[in-house]
Structure formats: C-alpha cells, structure tokens
Amino acid sequence: MTDWTGMEAVALGRGIAAGEIDPVALTEAYLDKIAAHPLRDRIYARLTPDRARAEARAAAERARLGLRRSVLDGVPVSWKDLFDTACIVTEAGSAMLEGRVPARDAEVLQAATAMGLVCLGKTHLSELAFSGLGLNPVTETPPCVNDAEAVAGGSSSGAAASVALGLAAAGIGTDTGGSVRVPSAWNDLVGLKTTAGRLSLAGSVPLAKRFDTVGPLARSVADAAALLGVLEGRADGPDLRGPGNLAGRRFAQLTTIAQDDLRPEVAAGYADALGRLRAAGAEIVDLAFQDLAGPMGDAAILYTGEAWGLWGDTIEVAGDKMFAPIRARFEGGRDVSAGQYVRAWERLEAVRADWHRMAAAFDAVILPTTPNIAPDATRLMEDNDYYVTENLLTLRNTRIGNLMGVSAVTLPTGAPSVGLSLMGAPLGEARLLRVAAAVEAVLG
User: Where is the Amidase domain (predicted)?
Assistant: First the structure.
C-alpha cells in the first residue's frame, strides 16, 4: 500500500480527483500516524479529529459527485496555533492566553475550508511568534527533522515538524521576520513568505501587524503555489508553467550583510547550490546594497515598538507567565517613542523604493535563508547569551525580505537544514514561484 503521508499535497489532490484516494481514509491515515508518533505532543498543541473527519466526509462526497472545490479538496493540513479556530482553544504558545476560545475561524482558515482543506489540528510555536528558534518551554519545543535534540526553527516550528515528519500534507504558518522560512529551511521544506497584506490576518493573533504575513510550509513549490491559491479562496494557485530551465535567468546574489558570518555547513551548502545554478545556465551577479544597513539597524524600533504597543498592557499584568527571553524581547519596545517609530518607517519606505528599483533588473535576489543551522535546545535553555545571539543571527537574513516588503521563498539545497532563499517583487508571488520551480528542478 502506498504511504499517502509521504506524498506531496498536490499529488494527494490529484489522487482524490482520480478516485484513487478516499479523503476519509487519507485523514484517518494521518490521524493514526500522529497518534502513534512518539513526538506528537511536541508538535501538535491540539488535534481537531471531529472537525477533520467531518471535513473529509464532505470532501469525499464532493469527489463522488464531481464537485470538488479545488485541487487540494480533501487534503489534510496543520495550522499554527495562532489562527483562530471556532470553539477550539487558540493560545499562540503563551500561558497568558491559556483557555482562549475564539467564536469563529480566522479568515484564511475560512477560505481554506471553503476550498476543501481538512484541518488536522493546531501546531506549537514560539511564544506569541516572537522568536526564530522555536524554543518554547511554556508549551512544547518541536524537534528538527535532522536532529531531534535541536530546535525546529520558529516561530512556525510545529508547522514545519508536522510536514517534515509526515504528520500533515502541509502546514500553514505566519512570517513576521522569517517565521515560515526559518523552520522550512531547517526542516528541508519549501516555505513561502507572502507580501504583507496579500492574505488576511483577521482572526490571527498578531505580533507586528505591518510585518505579519501568512504563508505555507510544504514539500514542493507546486504545493506552496496551490496552497497560496486556496488560502486566497481560489481553486488553484499561480500557473507554474513557463521556461523549465535556468538558461537566461539572471539572479542577484546579495553580498551586503547576508554573507557575513556564515556557519561552515551553510557556506558549503550555499556555494554548492550556486554552483549547480550556474552549471544549469543561470547568471549570478554579486549585489551590494549598502543602504540595507539603515533598516537593519532600525529593526529593533520597528518590530519591538509595534509588538510592545500591541502586547504591553497584557505583559504588564501577566508577564510573569512568559518565557523570560521572549518577555525581554517585548520589553525592548517599551521605551520606543512614537517619533522614533514614525521616523524609522519613513527611512524604511525610502530604502524600499531604492531596493525595488534595483531588484527589478533580476529574476530574483538570492541569499542563504539562515546563516546558521538548528542549534541544540538544551544549550539554548542553559545559556541566555547564546539564546540571544543565535536568535538574532537566525532571523538576520530572512528579516531582509520583511523589511523590504517583498515576496520570498526558501528551497532546500540538499544539504541538511541549509536553505536557499529567493526574493521577488511585492505581490510578485506568481512570477517568483515560477522561477522557484525552475530552481527546484536543479537543486532536486
């Protein structure tokens, strides 16, 4: 018997359409595998089996009648536990929100459900999504697929682990400074950061609303594209057809900041990936963008200022329930003034305009997704200085995409926990995914 839980989401959807896969049996296969997995409680905050079975039965009936709503109708996925689920606890990885039960689904969950996705359950995350590591002693710390003693990357840590370990066909996460791309990279997945504003944030627990984005963690570019479509309430995602090779493709390799202090495993995996792209006909041009230093320096104002503005009152009352390093990150925004925040955004908008003019000459800007690979969870807990430095390093490269306001995707390079990122234009997901599909075909 074929192990459906090892298949790509689009392949599962095609199997359902062809009558070869029953959505009910498929959902039961995932629920059984989750129940038997020794690390399930470190990955799923809670399961939604009754909902999953009901949605699977409805998908099976639509398939029988030839009324399937999307290419992924009947495919089971996981949801990060900051997306509201009606009558199901949603706590965003924080004891401050313990027992929080929303009255309705988040808008993206509503859209995905209307297109036939099956909700398996809610996955663990970094507390209030404010860490790139995925370490959360308040709830659970999901494992990295390449090292169960290492963190999975955050903040969509459980989402990545659920897909990498075959406990969901795909995961839906959020990305404010790298929270889809980091765990995707460390777990050898494809992760798509959408442009801020493209997908609804209504009904998702916020961190910094001007940077928060929704995105899929998946096994392939085709899966990521199809998931983007259903999250938007469409039957299919962007058309990936186009030149299937890299001949004539022109990439900018960002050298400013993004190449600094790469760990040996990352440097080797990244260099190998670039070599394969060049051998496949791609032109890769070094690109220095010195103005990037300004926004990177302002990131503490931009992120922590907004995060404290949203959560400060709650933390002042119940902050003793938090993981201390996460609380400290929030409290870093306590003294950010309105003037500082506004001026930082004015500077950022000016740099963004220059970035977009520069990047328009290339098919994508490329860089290592993270400068490091997944660190050991125990050491992070025992050494606060190490926690702080690793967290900041982890998010350094991915944050560039959020600051510049662009679409971005990370792809596995073949080296464990080493990802290659491609950054495109704002709202340029369709073109970026077509380019990513050609790169994926080379990287394997």
Answer: 26-433
**Any idea which fold 4-231 has?**
Amidase signature (AS) enzymes (3.90.1300)
User: Residues 339-354, buried b or exposed e (16+ Cβ, 10 A)?
Assistant: eebeebbebbeebbee
In the predicted structure, residue 193 carries a pLDDT above the cut 60? yes
What is the residue whose two structure tokens read 């050494």?
Answer: 383
* CA pair distance 417, 144, nearest whole angstrom: 9
Q: What angle do CA 261, 263, 269 make, to 5 degrees?
A: 120
* Identified catalytic residue from 78, 80, 156, 193: 80
Structure tokens at 199: 């997908």
Per-residue model confidence as pLDDT tens digits over 280-291: 999 999 999 999
Sign of the CA dihedral with 100 first, then 104, 105, and 107 last: negative
Cα gap 117→70, rounded to integer Å: 9
Distance CA 300, CA 145 (A): 31
Q: What pLDDT, in 10s, does the model give residues 416-430?
A: 999 999 999 999 999
Structure confidence by residue, pLDDT tens digits, 129-141: 999 999 999 999 9
pLDDT digits (tens, 9 = 90+) for 301-312: 999 999 999 999
Options 179, 204, 220, 417, the catalytic residue: 179
Q: Please tell me the chain's helix, strand, coil percentages from 3-state DSSP, rounded to the nearest 5.
A: 45, 15, 40
pLDDT at 1 over 70: no
For residue 349, give the nearest of 408, 423, 405 by alpha carbon.
405
Q: Which of 155, 157, 162, 417 is catalytic?
A: 155
Which part of the chain has CATH 3.90.1300.10?
A: 4-231, 250-294+324-443
Concerning whether 155 is annotated as a catalytic residue, the answer is yes
78 flagged as catalytic:
no
Q: Which DSSP letter does residue 320 get?
A: G
CATH: 3.20.20.70, 3.90.1300.10, 3.40.50.12280, 3.40.47.10. Which one for 250-294+324-443?
Answer: 3.90.1300.10
* Helices 23-36 and 9-17: angle between axes, nearest 10 degrees: 140
